[in-house]
């Protein structure tokens, strides 16, 4: 049987691989395949092989369809053979390449160790920098921390300043200035001379009042303008003093001017002593002048109305004499409504002038903080019923409401003025009560204000002593520790042991203390 017949009798299945032959596609190397070199060698040997094959050798498929069918058709075998060559075509280079896996793992492990060492070095560097920063901060803190000697010098300086400040306020030789001495003398002599003139020579009292007015007003203007209080000089009390000056020296025959002056002086000015809390404080020029402008016009008018002889009154002050000697049914015999009416005219002139000249034209400066009587009363009486009523109104209505309340207050204080004008003892009693009110305010200032101020100085001195005793390094005191010190560790222990007690304050103006603790007399 010929070879051709055997082939026809036993045909090979397409699915049966031929071991001796090499397919056309599998013999060609693929770029990038791992068996490139082996495939190339096999392709060279295929031409010299003595066993040619007429049928191609199918390849093993790596497609997902391989799981569904064991074998594919011829075309798919040719395509998949280029990706995954048969097992018999694997060469030694493929096995060598697999042996390099251990070297790759070693290389990755080496790289990981290098990164770990790098991170450890960075952590050590950061830790070192942190320690250096901490050391620098501790060293700077120690450098700035004062030593016990410096703390002792600082305490001595502070203690000396406290003692000197206390002696400056209390000792007459250093605390009382020349101006306050002059104010004290002027206040005491004012009462003595005023009392003498009222009882002995009332005709000279207007001269005494005018001399003081001309002396005090320039001082008041200078001091108030320096402090920024000069808007207070436009208040009604100063206007009343101007009316009194005009009634005494310029228009002594004007009955209406005198009635207006009398009602405003005994009404607004006298009651303002209680409302504005004027006090008789002799050493304060400001308080002496404030009391003067409120009470002295009343005392002057009391002398002119009740204490002058009729002949002298008729000759020197004819308006007063005419009103006093007029018949009850005479038009010159002013009743209460007439007094209030004529007093309202100068009051309206003052109020309108004050409103346009101060409230309107100086509105920006007042809003910037310049005080006036309206702002002072609004702040002082903010918690009272009237103050709450005014503050509850809109801003544009607060000033008119204040003006209306002030006029109502002036009218109410004028109601008893006919009694003060027609009855001497009633007028004297009223002035006595008003003066005693000012004395009471002065006593309150000396005891409550001045005394408490001295008490605060003593308490501050005690606090300084207690603070020094608890200061670091002084007689067992516990002060702040450095960051590197523990609770039982202290620096400069040798110097701290030398400080056992408070040393004497050399150069202080206070009394020195002897070795046995007894105070020696200051020379």
From TrEMBL:
Name the UniProt record assigns to this protein: Glycerophosphocholine acyltransferase 1
Biological process according to GO: phosphatidylcholine biosynthetic process
MF terms in GO: acyltransferase activity
Alphabetized UniProt keyword annotations: Acyltransferase, Lipid biosynthesis, Lipid metabolism, Membrane, Phospholipid biosynthesis, Phospholipid metabolism, Transferase, Transmembrane, Transmembrane helix
Membrane topology annotation: Multi-pass membrane protein
Biased composition (Low complexity): 37-50
Biased segments, Basic and acidic residues type: 487-503
PANTHER family linked to this entry: GLYCEROPHOSPHOCHOLINE ACYLTRANSFERASE 1, OS01G0585100 PROTEIN
Species this protein is from: Zopfia rhizophila CBS 207.26
Family (UniProt): Belongs to the GPC1 family.
Composition-biased stretches (Polar residues): 1-10, 51-73
Subcellular localization(s) per the UniProt record: Membrane
Pfam families with a match to the protein in the record: DUF2838 (PF10998)
Predominant place of localization: membrane
Region feature (Disordered): 1-83, 469-523
Residue ranges of the TM segments: 182-199, 205-222, 229-251, 257-276, 288-308, 339-360, 401-423, 429-447
């Amino acid at each position: 049987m010929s070879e051709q017949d055997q082939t026809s009798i036993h045909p090979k299945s397409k699915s049966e691989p031929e071991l001796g032959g090499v397919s056309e596609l599998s013999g060609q190397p693929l770029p990038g395949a791992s068996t490139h070199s082996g495939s190339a060698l096999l392709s060279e040997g295929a031409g010299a092989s003595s066993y040619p094959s007429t049928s191609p050798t199918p390849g093993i498929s790596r497609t997902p369809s391989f799981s569904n069918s064991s074998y594919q058709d011829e075309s798919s075998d040719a395509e998949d053979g280029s990706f995954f060559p048969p097992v018999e075509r694997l060469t030694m280079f493929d096995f060598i390449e697999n042996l390099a896996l251990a070297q790759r793992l070693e290389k990755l492990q080496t790289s990981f160790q290098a990164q770990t060492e790098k991170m450890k070095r960075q952590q050590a560097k950061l830790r070192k920098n942190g320690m250096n920063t901490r050391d620098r901060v501790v060293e700077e803190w120690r450098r700035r921390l004062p030593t016990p000697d410096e703390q002792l010098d600082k305490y001595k300086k502070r203690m000396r300043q406290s003692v000197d400040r206390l002696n400056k306020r209390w000792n007459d030789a250093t605390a009382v200035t020349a101006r306050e001495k002059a104010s004290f003398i002027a206040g005491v002599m004012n009462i003595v001379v005023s009392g003498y003139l009222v009882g002995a020579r009332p005709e000279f009292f207007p001269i005494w009042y005018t001399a003081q007015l001309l002396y005090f007003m320039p001082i008041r203007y200078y001091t108030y303008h320096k402090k920024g209080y000069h808007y207070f000089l436009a208040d009604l009390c100063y206007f009343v003093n101007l009316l009194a000056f005009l009634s005494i020296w310029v228009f002594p025959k004007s009955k209406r001017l005198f009635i207006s002056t009398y009602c405003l002086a005994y009404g607004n000015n006298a009651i303002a002593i209680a409302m504005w809390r004027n006090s008789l404080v002799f050493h304060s020029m400001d308080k002496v002048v404030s009391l003067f402008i409120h009470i002295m016009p009343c005392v002057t008018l009391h002398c002119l109305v009740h204490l002058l002889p009729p002949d002298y009154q008729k000759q020197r002050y004819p308006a007063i004499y005419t009103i006093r000697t007029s018949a009850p049914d005479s038009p010159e015999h002013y009743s209460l409504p007439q007094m209030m009416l004529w007093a309202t005219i100068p009051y309206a002139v003052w109020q309108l002038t004050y409103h346009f000249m101060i409230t309107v034209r100086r509105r920006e400066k007042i809003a910037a903080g310049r005080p006036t009587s309206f702002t002072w009363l609004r702040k002082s009486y903010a918690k009272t019923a009237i103050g709450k009523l005014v503050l509850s109104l809109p801003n544009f209505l607060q000033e008119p409401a204040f003006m209306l309340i002030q006029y109502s207050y002036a009218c109410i204080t004028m109601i008893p003025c006919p009694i003060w004008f027609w009855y001497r003892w009633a007028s004297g009693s009223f002035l006595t009560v008003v003066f005693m009110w000012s004395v009471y305010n002065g006593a309150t200032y000396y005891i409550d204000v001045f005394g408490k101020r001295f008490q605060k100085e003593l308490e501050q001195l005690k606090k300084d002593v207690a603070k020094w005793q608890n200061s670091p390094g002084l007689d067992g005191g516990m002060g702040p520790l450095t960051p590197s010190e523990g609770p039982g560790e202290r620096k400069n222990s040798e110097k701290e042991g030398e400080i056992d007690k408070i040393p004497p304050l050399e150069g202080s103006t206070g009394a020195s203390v002897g070795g046995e603790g007894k105070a020696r007399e200051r020379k």
